[in-house]
Automatic annotation (TrEMBL):
Residues 94-169 form the GHMP kinase C-terminal domain. It comes from the Bacteria. This is Galactokinase. It comes from Bacteroides caccae. It holds the Pfam family GHMP_kinases_C. GO terms for molecular function: ATP binding; galactokinase activity; metal ion binding.
Amino acid sequence: MPDFEIGIFFSGLTRSLVNSDYNLRVYECKTAAWNILAYADQPLKTFDKTFLRDIPKESFEKTRDIMPARFSRRAEHFYSEYRRVRQGVTAWETGNLQLFGKLSFDSCESSIHNYECGSPELIAIYNIMHKLSGVYGGRFSGAGFKGAVIALVDPAYKESIEAEVTRQYLAQFPEYEMTFKTYWVKPDDGARFIEN
C-alpha cells in the first residue's frame, strides 16, 4: 500500500439529515424497488419491507428504461455503489490505492448525478480536489448533505492540496472563512485501547 493520509475538508456548513432530502432519497429507493417489482410482474411487499437489496440487478436492467427516470437514477446509484464497494474491498486488500481512489471518485459522481445529493459547497470542494495532484480519490462524507468531503492523499502533496482547496473554496464561498477547516488523519492498524 502506498503511503497516504486522509484529508477531511469541512465545508463550514453543519449537516442535518433531518432537514435534508436524506429521508426522501430513502423513500425514492423504496419506490424504485416497487417499480422494478411491478414492471417485472412480481409480488409487491409492504412499503416498509421493500428494499433494492432484495431485488437482483438483472430485474433492474430489464425495467430501468420504463420506470420514471428519477427512480431509475436512484436504483442505478444503489446497484453501482454495491459493485464499487465489492471492488473497493479487493483494491484495498491488494494495496491498489489508485483503483480504490478512482472508485471513491466514481462513487461521488454517482452521488451527485444519480442520487442527487451534495450541497453547492460540497460539490465545489469535490470539484476542486478532484483536479489536484496527489489526491488518490475522495467523496462526500456520510450522506452528502452539507458536512464534509474526505480524500485519500499522498502526504507529499498535503500542504499544497490544503492550500489550493482553501484558496479556491473560500473564493467561491467567503462566508465560510471562519468555519471552513481541513483536518489530516493518519491511518492506524486497527482499533485498540490506548494505555496512558
